[in-house]
Each structure stands twice: as structure tokens, then as C-alpha cells.
Specification:
The structure holds two protein chains of two kinds.
Chain A (H helix, E strand, L loop, with lengths): L5 E2 L8 E2 L10 E4 L2 E4 L4 E4 L28 E3 L16 E7 L2 E12 L2 E8 L10 E4 L2 E10 L2 E7 L1 H5 L3 H15 L3 E6 L4 E5 L5 E2 L2 E2 L8 H12 L5 E5 L4 E3 L4 H6 L7 E2 L2 E2 L4 E3 L20 E2 L11 E6 L5 E6 L5 E4 L3 H12 L6 E9 L1 H5 L5 H9 L4 E4 L2 E2 L1 E2 L5 E6 L9 E3 L3 E11 H6 L8 E2 H7 L3 E4 L17
Parallel strand pairs in A: 5-34, 7-33, 17-23
Antiparallel strand pairs in A: 1-2, 3-4, 5-6, 7-8, 8-32, 9-12, 9-26, 10-11, 10-13, 11-12, 13-14, 14-15, 15-16, 17-18, 18-21, 19-22, 20-21, 23-24, 24-25, 26-30, 27-28, 27-32, 29-30, 31-32
Chain B lengths: L5 E4 L6 E5 L2 E8 L2 H24 L1 H4 L13 H10 L14 H16 L4 E6 L2 E6 L4 E7 L7 E8 L6 E5 L13 E6 L2 H14 L8 E5 H4 L9 E6 L4 H20 L5 E6 L2 E5 L17 E3 L1
Parallel strand pairs in B: 6-14
Antiparallel strand pairs in B: 1-2, 2-3, 3-4, 4-5, 5-8, 6-7, 8-9, 9-12, 10-11, 12-13
């Protein structure tokens, strides 16, 4: 029989299971030649160390070293819990566990979110497209370009208008795009009159087929301020090319303080304050988020009365990825030369100070009345309880940020959630796990389904579950004091 | 480390969960407490030997059926065999195509023999056998992909209609499919018949040799698959709407043929967000695309 397949002896079917696959039961699988049991309902284990994402079930394996049953080190997430929508029935799982002597209740459900989307932060100086322009996936409008943030461009994707307000296909593609992003997948987005960017949570963006490596340490002006001292005496002029604010050493306050003499340099663009220029070029994917490939294109001829032959000019982008070194000839024309070793270090330092460029994806959704009604007979009390920080909200065990104001609108970093925590319904809408944790007494107080509360011990042995390690940087969902996510 | 059959009442105190190897059954009856106790006990007693009975004849049950083939001996195996036989000469099919439905029927039979029940369902991984006393009905929800469970429609089955079996097949399901349907749900006389028919129709929802459809010989994935070297669908890319129409047309042709032969009463074919209904002679609300709130979810 096939090479590396193993025979499962858990039942008389005696399946041959290939590596990475499951047997006919979908419970036992061949993982690296080992027969392991895997089950669908995700339960977070508060493990001491990172390790395998899937652990053997119910201590069946000899090497399983911890007792999961009944310990507060286990937290049942809503992933795979099912949902009650659109019923006003109690949530599928209402679980109690003893935490530090207090009876805690976790209400576990999977919410269906029509009002939801993702906010994507793309670390790049490259111009992705004008603010407010439409972002498309597979040709359908799924969101728009919103503000530029420091070293990053923000996209807002999804939202109820794309999900249900447009054509059927627009809704389906939007839902699919959100689902992929939330579950850690890569999607290709194209910005109207802008770039095509491949976005994946926790990965560098790929903009017009170029993988972004670093995000800038500061704008052109700030870069001048940070590195002026290191350049002083080694070069006569430095221009840090930046789509936002291009900096010029000799004119900049930092250069003035060091006594850097005027060089007669003339920059195209609109001068803001001394040594700081707006709009030296059009936005683009070239130097420092501009559209230029030749840095000299932003210079006008040097002032003949001030500049001098052999004047040394360094031009560098805000991330240090682009740089060029020139010396003026007798006619005061810049001539490209090799970068002197003394300047290589400072260019390298700019690069070093630029952090790895990433895409980050925050899911944002609002828990509607019916979802809240799955927790309590009086939904507004749940909202109030969340407001008063008596109830902790988590999303697949990950901390969430609750937006102030009415309702329960929250944001969560999808990278802090267990893998594939999201689903969808053809409405279309996203299905996201959501857990509410509070003291049993508080739960009774707010009209909770106390008669439906089941002890953790009763859940663990009986339901199909998948145990995953809790991410070490997430606060444990069952600790006493709710804390805001970092 | 052979695992025995597991039987437990689910936390709602109403549904019985039976598990043994690849068989997962959720059943529920509606009757007096005494009668329900009798029925559940009968279901349990019948269930515990089923897997061994089937495995005893597994080799035969994994063979393609020929019309003149001799039947296996077990009661469930014979039911499987009978359910796939109508298709034997036209296409590749093994009795395994009806295993889940046949098991569901057998457990339901044990229950209804044991006690009078107003209604009952036995759901074996999405293949469902129904019992309805006069005047009773069930609402059945349909999902297209078990990995993304959500209802795309529902069907109401009433006692005055002969439907007592429901089954769903698709490439994303637990069994392999030769076609590309996300889900084909079939209503038929009996669960085993529905099971076999859903398999056949789901295989027919297809775009042969299409570059966006990835197929792999079944044996490469599961060495002892009854499908052998047949190429089973492992991924379906996004299809143009004309392609979805073409594939659904092909499935509809097959479903209509089964309908005219009296093998099924209705079928709902689902592919990439499009639904095609065939048959649908049932009372109002049948196969309506709305979010149902009740009872049986399967896929």
C-alpha cells in the first residue's frame, strides 16, 4: 500500500490515511506519520509554550502533558460554535468556569455581521491612489482609500453598503475579500487611478508587483533632522526625497544650527518652511513615494553665485532604498559618482531605522440586537455591561477594542485570532466568533440565560473540538480585570 | 486503540448523538417521554453493530455495481445496493454512494418499530431519513458548504407528501465528488435513494476538462477510496456566469431525467451562488430561499 500512508485502527473501516489528510471520519488524521485526532470546535488552551497548533484530543496520546478538563486554562471560543441567528434563542454555548474563585460565564456564539468590514493599514510611502478613490477586487468595488497615516496608507474595505447595497456580485466579492483577509489570506486589490496591491495580514504589501520592504523612519524633513549630525562635514548638501515633505539639509533648521553653508540648490515644488518642500513631484511608486526615477528631475539649476565646483550632493529617499551621490562639475552641473564609504553608513542607517513594512488588518463589526439577545433577554443591558467593563468581549479569544458610543462595535486584529476563525453566510455577511465573559452573578443580573449555563467540564469531553494554543501576547480572556488591547 | 461506538444525549436533552468511526448521526424523535425512551434505546441497540456489519462487506460495497451483480447480504448493504442499482449500467457508482442514507433509514426503522412517534429524523452526516405521522411536517434548512455553514434555502416536507429521504452531495462535502456542485440537495422516497441521486446529480454538475477545476485521482488522496483512479474535484476557481450556467444545465438535465424516472421528487443544485431547482412539486414554501429558523441543517 502507499508509501507514507498510515493505517488508522480507530474503527473497523481501517482507513489508509495519507500524510496531511484525514480519514473517513474527519477526526483522525495523519500528521507527519502520526495518527492524531483533530476536531472542529476550537478551544483555546492556555499553554505555557508555543507549539503544535492542534493537540491530541482528550489526553489520548501519551505525550499530552496537561489536563484540559475543568481548568481555567481552557477557554471555549466561538469559532465553530454555530449561531442562533435570526432566532432569539440562547447562544449555542453558555459556559461557566471557575476563575480565581469567581464563577465566570462565557457566552459563546458566532455572530453574523452585515455591518462589518476591515481597516487595512499598508506600510508604504508609495502612492496607492488618491484618497476616497474606489478599491476594487475582481473588478468589483469593495472599499475605498482613506487617510494616509504615518508611513502608511489606510484602506477601508467592506461595510454594509458594499455587502448588501450594491449588485449581488459586488456583495459576494466583498464578502469573499473580507473573509480571505480576516482568515489570513492574500487578496489583490486595485485602486482606481492608482496601484495594484496584494494585501495579506502580517505580510509586506506587494505594490505593482514590487514587494515593499521597509516603512520610512520619518518624512524627508524629519530624516534631515535625525541624520544631520551624521552628514555634517561628509557632504555639502543632502536632499531627502519624499512625496510629502522633501527635506534639504542646508536650508533646514537642523543644518542651520550645525552651520551648514548655503549651497545654492534650488528644489522644484512648493516651499513650506525653510528646508521643507511640498509636491516636488507627483505621487507614485518611485523615490520616496513620488513618481520620479531620476532624482535630478526635482532640481533646478544651482544658483551660480552660491554653488561651487565639486560641491557634494547626496540625494536619498526616506527609506534609504534609493540614493544617488553627485558632485558639481565646473559648470555646476551634477555628475553622478559612487557613494563615498563615509556616506554609505548613513544611508544604511536610514534603512536600518525603517521598520519592516507590513499589512495589518483589523476586523470591525457591530454586534446587533439579535446577537445580543442570544446573551441576555434584555439586550441593552449587555451593551451597558460591556460599557461598564463588567463584561469582557473577545473575538476568538483575542482582545477587542470596543468603540465608544452606542451599541457594541468592536475592532480586532485578525492576526491575534486562531486561524480560519471567520466564516460567511450568503446574505452576504461575515460570520465572526464573539465571546462575552462576565461574572455569573453579573450575568444573572443582566437577565442572562442562567438556566442554560453549562459548566466547562460538561462541554469539553462531549463536543467535537479543536484545541489550539493561546497566543502568548494575548491577555488570557478569563483574567479578572478586563484590559484594553495593546 | 479501537474506539467503541459513542452514544450521548446532546446538551439540549432532546437530540441523541451517535458516533462510531466515520458515522455521525444526530437524531430526534417527537413523542411521549416513555415512547421516546423506547425509540432512543432501539436506535442505540441497532446502531452499535452497524459499522461492523458494513465493514464485513466493505470490499463488495466498494466495487462498482453492475446491473446483474448479486446483492450483498447485510440489510443495510442490500439497501445501499438497491439504491445505486438504477444507475449501474449508465455510470460508475458503488454502493458506498448510498451508505449514509441507508444507515439513517435503518436507524429510523428501528425507532419507529419500537414506539409510535409523531415525527422523527435521523441525520447521518447530512443524509436524512424522516418519519412523519399524519399532519406533521419538517422544515429542512440547506447549506452549501460545510466549511462555511449557512443556509441558502429551506424545504418544508409534509406528511401528505411521499418524501421521507433527503440527502446532499457536493465537492466540499465529506465524500469525494466527480462534479463541481457546491451542494446538490435531493428529496426522494427514502434516504438511501436520495443519497445515491444526490451523488449522481452532483457528479453531473460539471465542466469537463475545465482549467479552473482541479482534479486529482481519488486514490492519490485516499489510497483505499472506492473511486479508485477516477479524478475527484479538489478545487474550483471562480467561474464566469456562463460557465456556472453550463454546469448547472448539465446537472439539471440529469436531475430532470431522474425526476422522470421517479427516482427523486425534487433537487436544489447550488454552484457559486446560483441555485437551480428541479421538480419542486411540493406545497408552498418548499425550497424557498430564505433563512429558515428550524430543525435540520445538513450539508
Amino acid at each position: 500500500m502507499a508509501d507514507d500512508a498510515i493505517r488508522c485502527d480507530a474503527c473497523p473501516v481501517l482507513c489508509y490515511i495519507k500524510p496531511g489528510r484525514l480519514g473517513a471520519c474527519d477526526r483522525y488524521g495523519n500528521r507527519d506519520g502520526q495518527l492524531v485526532r483533530v476536531d472542529p470546535h476550537v478551544v483555546l488552551d492556555r499553554a505555557r509554550s508555543r507549539g503544535e497548533r492542534v493537540v491530541p484530543f482528550l489526553g489520548r496520546e501519551q505525550d499530552w502533558d496537561g489536563n484540559i478538563v475543568g481548568s481555567p486554562g481552557t477557554f471555549v471560543t466561538a469559532i465553530g460554535a454555530g449561531t442562533t441567528y435570526p432566532d432569539y434563542k440562547p447562544a449555542p454555548f453558555i459556559i461557566s468556569s471557575q476563575v480565581e474563585g469567581v464563577d465566570m460565564v462565557t457566552v459563546v456564539t458566532e455572530g453574523i455581521f452585515s455591518y462589518c468590514g476591515v481597516k487595512v493599514k499598508i506600510d508604504t510611502d508609495r502612492h496607492l491612489g488618491p484618497e476616497r478613490n474606489i478599491v476594487r477586487a475582481k473588478g468589483e468595488a469593495v472599499g475605498h482609500v482613506t487617510t494616509s497615516e504615518y508611513g502608511s496608507q489606510m484602506l477601508s474595505l467592506g461595510g454594509v453598503r458594499h455587502l448588501t447595497g450594491g449588485s449581488r456580485r459586488e456583495g459576494t466579492v466583498t464578502c469573499d475579500t473580507l473573509l480571505k483577509l480576516c482568515n489570513g489570506g492574500a487578496v489583490e486589490l486595485s485602486v482606481e487611478d492608482g496601484a495594484t496591491v496584494v494585501v495579506q495580514a502580517g505580510q509586506p504589501p506587494i505594490i505593482d508587483s514590487v514587494r515593499e520592504e521597509r516603512m520610512r523612519v520619518g518624512c524627508g524633513s524629519a530624516t534631515i533632522g535625525m541624520f544631520a549630525k551624521q552628514w555634517f562635514g561628509k557632504v555639502d548638501e543632502v536632499v531627502v526625497v519624499d512625496d510629502h515633505i522633501t527635506g534639504v539639509l542646508s536650508e533646514h533648521q537642523a543644518g542651520k544650527l550645525l552651520g551648514v553653508p548655503e549651497t545654492g540648490i534650488r528644489i522644484k515644488g512648493r516651499r513650506s518652511t525653510p528646508g521643507r518642500y511640498f509636491q516636488v513631484a507627483e505621487p507614485g511608486t518611485g523615490w520616496g513615494g513620488t513618481n520620479i526615477d531620476d532624482p535630478l528631475s526635482i532640481l533646478q539649476p544651482f544658483k551660480t553665485k552660491i554653488a561651487w565646483p565639486r560641491l557634494r550632493v547626496l540625494m536619498v529617499s526616506t527609506t534609504g532604498e534609493h540614493h544617488a551621490y553627485y558632485e558639481l562639475d565646473e559648470k555646476l552641473k551634477p555628475v553622478l559618482k559612487d557613494l563615498p564609504p563615509t556616506l554609505q553608513e548613513s544611508v544604511a542607517r536610514i534603512k536600518e531605522n525603517c521598520e519592516p513594512a507590513l499589512c495589518t488588518v483589523l476586523f470591525m463589526g457591530g454586534a446587533g440586537g439579535s446577537l445580543r439577545a442570544g446573551v441576555t433577554e434584555n439586550p441593552v443591558r449587555l451593551t451597558n455591561s460591556v460599557r461598564e467593563a463588567l463584561t469582557r468581549v473577545t473575538c476568538g479569544g483575542a482582545p477587542v477594542y470596543i468603540w465608544p458610543g452606542g451599541g457594541i462595535t468592536f475592532m480586532v486584529d485578525v492576526k491575534r485570532m486562531p486561524e480560519n476563525g471567520f466564516g460567511y453566510v450568503p446574505t452576504p455577511a461575515l460570520v465572526a466568533p464573539i465571546e462575552f465573559t462576565l461574572k455569573l452573578a453579573d450575568y444573572a443580573e443582566l437577565g442572562g440565560y442562567v438556566d442554560q449555563v453549562r459548566p466547562l467540564e460538561s462541554i469539553l469531553p462531549e463536543q467535537g473540538q479543536q484545541h489550539v494554543q493561546a497566543l502568548p501576547r494575548n491577555p488570557w480572556p478569563l483574567t479578572k480585570t478586563p484590559s484594553t488591547p495593546s | 486503540m479501537r474506539e467503541p461506538a459513542q452514544i450521548r444525549l446532546l446538551p439540549d436533552g432532546r437530540r441523541l448523538y451517535l458516533h462510531h468511526g466515520p458515522i455521525d448521526v444526530i437524531l430526534e424523535g417527537f413523542a411521549s417521554t416513555t415512547d421516546l425512551g423506547l425509540a432512543y434505546r432501539a436506535a442505540t441497540n441497532r446502531f452499535v453493530t452497524i459499522l461492523d456489519e458494513l465493514c464485513g462487506e466493505l470490499t463488495i460495497l466498494r466495487q462498482p455495481v453492475q446491473r446483474d451483480a448479486s446483492a450483498p447480504t447485510g440489510v443495510i448493504a442490500r439497501r445501499m445496493f438497491a439504491a445505486v442499482r438504477p444507475y449501474a449500467n449508465e455510470t460508475f457508482i458503488t454502493p458506498m454512494a448510498a451508505v449514509a442514507g441507508a444507515v439513517a433509514e435503518e436507524i429510523l426503522r428501528a425507532m419507529t418499530d419500537a414506539a409510535p412517534l409523531r415525527r422523527a429524523y435521523v441525520n447521518d452526516g447530512g443524509d436524512i431519513a424522516l418519519h412523519l405521522a399524519p399532519g406533521e411536517h419538517f422544515v429542512v434548512g440547506m447549506i452549501e458548504r460545510p466549511d462555511r455553514p449557512s443556509l441558502f434555502g429551506s424545504a418544508t416536507v409534509r406528511s401528505d407528501h411521499p418524501v421521507r429521504g433527503i440527502a446532499t452531495s457536493g465537492w466540499c462535502g465529506r465524500s469525494f465528488s466527480l462534479g463541481i456542485a457546491d451542494a446538490v440537495t435531493v428529496l426522494a422516497d427514502r434516504a438511501a435513494m436520495a443519497d445515491a441521486a444526490a451523488t449522481i446529480i452532483a457528479n453531473a454538475v460539471n465542466l469537463p476538462d475545465h482549467p479552473k477545476v482541479q482534479r486529482v485521482p481519488a486514490r492519490d488522496l485516499v489510497p483505499d477510496s472506492d473511486l479508485g483512479d477516477l479524478a475527484v474535484t479538489v478545487d474550483v476557481g471562480e467561474l464566469a456566469s456562463a460557465e456556472v450556467t453550463e454546469a448547472l444545465d448539465s446537472g439539471e438535465t440529469m436531475a430532470s431525467e431522474l425526476l422522470s424516472k421517479g427516482l427523486i421528487y425534487a433537487a436544489a443544485l447550488r454552484l457559486q451562488g446560483e441555485t437551480r431547482l428541479v421538480g419542486v412539486p411540493l406545497p408552498e414554501r418548499t425550497f424557498e430561499s430564505h433563512m429558515a429558523t428550524e430543525s435540520l441543517m445538513h450539508g
